[in-house]
Amino acid sequence: MKNRRAFAMMGLAIVLGLAAVVLASRWLLRQTPGGVRIVVAAADVNLGQRLAPDMGRLADWPSASLPQGALRDPAQLNGATLPNVDSKRIAFYGLSYGGKTAVRVPPILGNKYAISICSADFNDWIQKNASADDRHSYMFTGEYEMPEWSMGHVASYAELASLMTPRI
Prior knowledge:
Radius of gyration: 26 Å
Strand content: 5-15%
Number of helices: 4
Distance between the termini: 83 Å
Shape: flat
Order of helices and strands: HEEEHEHH
Strand order of the largest sheet: 1-2
Number of strands: 4
């Protein structure tokens, strides 16, 4: 008897949930967008690349949060560059796993970044990943499931940071 009642309640919950979804979607479709159409990137744009009208597309945008300097016509892109981007002042910032990326990627790419900021994870990660002596080693935790693919034999963070250091 208890199982029937539980199944009936679950069935009723599913039916009511589906009804709520249908009603909400109908309500949302009836809402009029209170926005404007602005030009957004249709694909990735490289630093310093001259823009062309086919590189943008029109998209609906809420008028209350319209970005400053937003364009309304893709033709305005013809020959333009991104006005607020100085390719000599691009930074790379990373936190947690992004911190790993902020240390590992810039030396590979060369002089594409003016500065690289590793906000977290700048440590002796070779010991942290593989040591049986360090109680903070990932060998004793289940949180670290990403293999390093023998990265420790290539370079430490100190060595990677030295590759990013400007030379005179």
